[in-house]
Amino acid sequence: MPGERFVVRVATGRDVDAFHALVIESDGALERHAESIEASRATIARTVRSLAGEAGDTERGYVLLLEDAASGEVAGCVQLVCRIGLDQPFYDYRLGKIVHSSSRLKSWRCHDVLYLCNDLTGCSELHSLYVRPGARDLGGAALLTKAAQLFIAGRLAEFAPRTIIEMHGVRGRDDASPFWEAVGRQFFKVGQREAERLVAEGRKAFIAELMPKHPVYLGLLPEAAQATVGGIHPVVAGLVPLLEQDGFHFENHVDIFDAGMVLEAHTRTLNGVANSREVVVETGDPGAGAPSWWLAAGEGEGFRMTAARGSLAADHLSLGPDALRRLGTTAGGCVRVLAATNA
């Protein structure tokens, strides 16, 4: 079953170097993170404070790490933010329409436009999803997204009624975003990567100061830029169907830098929240034909999640010894289970 090789766990203070290595290796894919060891240390420290109940609403969030169960190597990550935009505004574009009509000239035109907005303020967010190349074909990304949902299910009161995830937008052969070149560069006079670095360093006020306040008419943009609005980078395109199956959908919000689509969901109706439940585990041999499950055990720093086959009867799940070891639990322990229908 995809994902059985890995465990997802919560980052601790011992993981600063491993997390920082992912930030550097991603080469800008983790655009919310400044490329300094101090920034990585601060991100992990927020997770530690959140686990301890010491983080306020403006900063509470968690980093989950994908770990090779055999070698202990960290192979990916995802970050959960409980509430976005409470300390500094969270900006995105909302797709809308403006109608221009004249009865005198018998003319009527409907134009697609982008509005700069803060509509998603207060939502929870999944971001900084990154999986090393060697783990991408082994179910690493799917495991991280399911782990995030099972983690939320266990701490539901901390998260907002809506959850979002921004998808990386389309880029050209030179790795430049046609949308950024047509819109952002006209107001920032820097490259997209540099603007993302400024945001990662916490310098977000410049967005409000420099971005146009009036609607952006898509029809006035070059065709290459128009075609990317609501688009998805090929690297993450395969993730979208998985997220849609879990309850995420497109609600006409796009990223302000590359116009990549923003997926939204009602947190309580996410597959991993609404359809998971807690059962008692037993040691056994479920067999190769047993159903596949996403499994999570433990709380706080002890949270661990993996995938395995198991036989469920009433509220008891029979798992093999290796699956119990990966979960860090024993027979008689309690785990949260979610059917892996596509595994």
Q: In words, what does this structure look like?
A:
The chain is an alpha+beta fold and 343 residues long. It contains twelve helices and 15 strands. A hairpin with a 6-residue loop joins strand 12 and strand 13 (304-313). Helix 1 packs across helix 2 (37-51). The model has no long low-confidence stretch (mean pLDDT 90).
Tell me briefly what this model is.
The chain has 343 residues and is of the alpha+beta class. It has helices spanning 16-25, 37-51, 133-136, 140-154, 178-188, 192-200, 205-210, 223-226, 234-237, 239-245, 271-274, 321-327, and strands spanning 6-10, 61-68, 74-81, 92-102, 107-117, 124-131, 162-166, 216-217, 249-254, 261-266, 277-283, 292-297, 304-313, 316-319, 334-339. It is globular.
**Overall mean confidence score, pLDDT:** 90
* Secondary structure tally: strands: 15
Given as residue ranges, the uncertain stretches (5+ residues, pLDDT < 50) are none
For the largest beta-sheet, the strand count, sense and barrel status come to: 5 strands, mixed, barrel
Distance between the termini: 6 Å
Determine the number of helices (DSSP H or I, runs of at least 4 residues): 12
Q: Which class best fits the helix and strand makeup?
A: alpha+beta
The backbone outline, from C-alpha atoms, is: globular
Strand content: 25-35%
Radius of gyration: 22 Å
Query: Could you give the order of the helices and strands?
Result: EHHEEEEEHHEHHHEHHHEEHEEEEHE
Tell me the strand order in the biggest sheet: 11-14-13-12-15
Residues in helix, %: 25-40%
